[in-house]
Write a structure and sequence with these properties.
Shape: globular
Bound molecules: zinc ion
Number of strands: 6
Structural class: alpha+beta
Number of helices: 3
CATH superfamily: Cytidine Deaminase, domain 2
CATH topology: Cytidine Deaminase, domain 2
Order of helices and strands: EHEEHEHEE
Length: about 160
């Protein structure tokens, strides 16, 4: 028997103004993208902003539906936009923010499990790390070096080979 530990670390900043200019701009775009959410049920408006290798920033926001499983998270809205509008373009970083109409938006929140799976596969496909920047509309910021750190032992295409 062997107990295996995998380290997890992230960088914490007290305030958005401590970020480097590129990360600052990306998080601001994610904050603005929260206004594009359709979230009449949860009132939890999420915004994602992806920095592409061609310099373009792609935004996404969560889109809910009365049939709840039909809804989609901000992260996967943005990822799908990159697939369809900028095929072959690498994603260098993703910022994620939220505007909680039912409460505070003063601390970072992380992608849900499905989005972690999507981000991990995207990172694997492009063979390039995706930096993750997490922050609310106010408060501290977390930066995670690359997306797949969020999903240890992720299921991947390699698991299906024989
Ligand atoms: Zn999600």
């Amino acid at each position: 028997m062997e107990k295996i530990s995998r380290p997890f670390s992230y960088i914490r900043y007290d305030h958005i103004d401590s970020l480097d200019p590129k990360d600052h701009a990306l998080l601001q775009q994610a904050r603005r993208a929260t206004s594009l959410a359709y979230a009449p049920y949860s009132k939890f408006r999420v915004g994602a902003a992806l920095q592409l290798s061609n310099g373009i920033i792609v935004s996404g926001a969560n889109q809910e539906n009365a049939s709840f499983p039909a809804g989609i998270c901000a992260e996967r809205v943005a990822l799908s936009t990159v697939s369809s509008q900028y095929p072959g373009c690498k994603i260098e970083a993703m910022a994620l923010s939220y505007d909680n109409k039912a409460g505070e938006s003063d601390h970072p929140v992380s992608p849900c499990g499905i989005c972690r799976q999507s981000l991990a596969e995207w990172e694997q496909r492009q063979s390039f790390p995706i930096k993750i920047i997490l922050g609310g509309l106010t408060g501290e910021i977390y930066i995670i070096e690359f997306a797949s750190l969020l999903l240890p032992l992720a299921f991947s295409a390699g698991d299906m080979t024989v």
